[in-house]
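Subject: two folds for Thursday's group meeting

Dear M.,

Sorry for the delay on this. The cluster queue was jammed most of the week, so I only got both jobs back this morning. I'm pasting them in the order they finished. Each block is the input sequence followed by the predicted structure tokens. Could you check whether the formatting survives your parser before we put anything on slides? The first protein is the one we discussed after the seminar.
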Amino acid sequence: MALIAKETSAFLEKEIGRSVRMAIILGSGLNPVVRELPTDQLIPYKDIPGFPTVGVKGHAGNLHIGVVAGGPCALFAGRVHYYEGHRMAQVAYPVTVAHALGAQIVMVTNAAGGIHPALQTGAFMLIRDQINLMGSSPLMGLTPSKGVTPFADMSRAYSKRLRQLADSVFREQGEDVFEGVLAAVCGPAYETPAEVRMLRALGADAVCMSTVPEVIMARALDMEVLGISCITNRAAGLQQAPLSHEEVMRAGAAQVRSLASVLKGLFVRLA
């Protein structure tokens, strides 16, 4: 399996022609974060050869390039999901593209259901570790080559250095933040209450349908990873109201300004 398509690489070199240091992938309801961060170039995913399509409401499907706090950055407004029928390598393709652009750090964000009692709607969680329950990996079929291995070490999937920086920025800005474990399931149906009880027994603090494939690919490429979950609902069986994508979108939108402010603060620290 080739890591990045030749036509993708040629397009990036021609249309962007500059390197970035960091990349951000924005989750459900969080695409408006790009309005809060300075970017000067917008490329629809559909215009990038080899880039998978995005079809979920709340995921714009645009790559933004700009300089934030002196740091060149790529912002992926829209995520590719496994449940859309894509192969795992396609799900992780934004990370592959970010790496091809020179990114050394990738920040992944998502909308997640809170399992731990401390994670109510509107809370933020710094991801300390992950549980892959999606039944596959983006590294399946990957041929070992210079700079990438399918046998990625996941013992330190999320950077402790970046978590400590992010924690200090959250607290400086008056935001409470929790640090915990994220479980990823394939979706698109929400979990049952019994499945949520299982996840809690496994040690998961929150659950989502994304992020984990991207992090696996990032670690295979030796990129430093920061993960932030925006808790947009309580997981199944832990709230009275039925779960819906519309609820997730509304809750995510309410967290956009706080998240953008934290990301700006992080860029200042990292610059």
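Second protein, same layout:
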Amino acid sequence: MKKAYIFPGQGSQFPGMAKDLYEANAAAKELLEKANDILGFRITDIMFEGTAEDLKATRVTQPAVFLHSVVLTKCIDGFAPDMVAGHSLGEFSALAAAGAISFEDALRLVYLRATQMQACCEKVPGSMAAIINLSEEKIEEICSSCSGIVIPANYNSDGQIVISGEKEAIDEACAKAKEAGAKRALPLQVSGAFHSPLMEPARIELGKAIEQTPVSVPVCPVYQNVTAQPTTDPEIIKANLLAQLTSPVKWTQTVKNMLADGALSFTELGPGAVLQGLVKRIAGPVEGLEINGMSTIQL
């Protein structure tokens, strides 16, 4: 039975995240203290004791979710995935877990990505919205017909797509989606237009760092967001990571491709269980497991 390990992105964080790992597992504590040193501030203090509002800042959220996910992989005996994938930020967790990028280098990239995205959001206002119960083709057609920048950003599951772009264009697309029969067209409370062309300044800065980062052949295929296809080629991994910031997350296609390649179970590693819900909508009743803390590791 092939096992797929999947890693969540921004939005799955919660107050107290990874505290139980830090307190119960020596390897987890060592990695989290190393992260404090690399980042130059005690992110563990925010993760363990901070409020939900403290954790919402992109520069905190992204490294916190990455750390929670990757540290969990070090707490599992015999972690040996047949394939991995991550949603947006989670792709960096997947690459670190599969040995394509070192823990230290991946954390530095994640923090740079987070700070650049936060700066980009402050300079270039944008928004996102969830469109429910409308086909991919119709949503793509609606986005193409709008004035201004708006594109499908997250193909989360059949019938759930998030669009991203300029606020006025988002409003126009939502109105057109409702006219076309969407069950809901709901603006999201986010800080910017993630996975859209508005992230181009952040993509340029991150690209410089990705180019200088060593990437190895991972221990298993990594299904990347931009293509939804598996790869073990370091140069392809780099190119796809660079494109990710301004391109859609093809999560629906990723899960379907993993199923087609023999995945019979999906284990989510990280805070929350958002991806388990999406997998069930895409794949139906497949075996799923959430590992998000010491209690779930011991099950």
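Two things I noticed about the second structure. The chain has two domains: 2-122+197-297, 125-187. The CA atoms of residues 2 and 56 lie 35 Å apart.

Cheers,
T.
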